Amino acid sequence: YDSSALNINRTLNSVYCIATNDCWIVGDDDGNEVILRWTGGPNWTRVGPSGAIPNTDLNSVFCVNSNDCWAVGDTSGAELILHWDGTSWSRYTPSGAIPNRNLRSVYVIGPKQRPQAMWREVFQ
Hints:
Blueprint: E1 11-19, E2 22-29, E3 32-38, E4 45-46, E5 56-65, E6 68-75, E7 78-84, E8 89-91, E9 103-108, E10 115-120
Antiparallel strand pairs: 1-2, 2-3, 3-4, 5-6, 6-7, 7-8, 9-10
């Protein structure tokens, strides 16, 4: 993987592979989210929303299948949840149960294919 080809200057935080030819990586690039996908070819491809949500770090990605992926992170101290529907990433509106928290990991369990478990750091 050659990060210079994609102009990525920062950190890649999480990788998840659905199959031997379908993998995702999320991270942070100078304060903007990074989402990369590999589909078996020689190179990773940068996949949106790239730069659409400023001051964002993506910390974790998990996929149920190639049309249902979730990524979590933080943006200026608020939680961030993104969903991939097979075509594009969109911001998922949280319930408000996790105000001003940074989400560190996501895992999908259960039949509804929505994130049922997220880990966050809590400092007291």
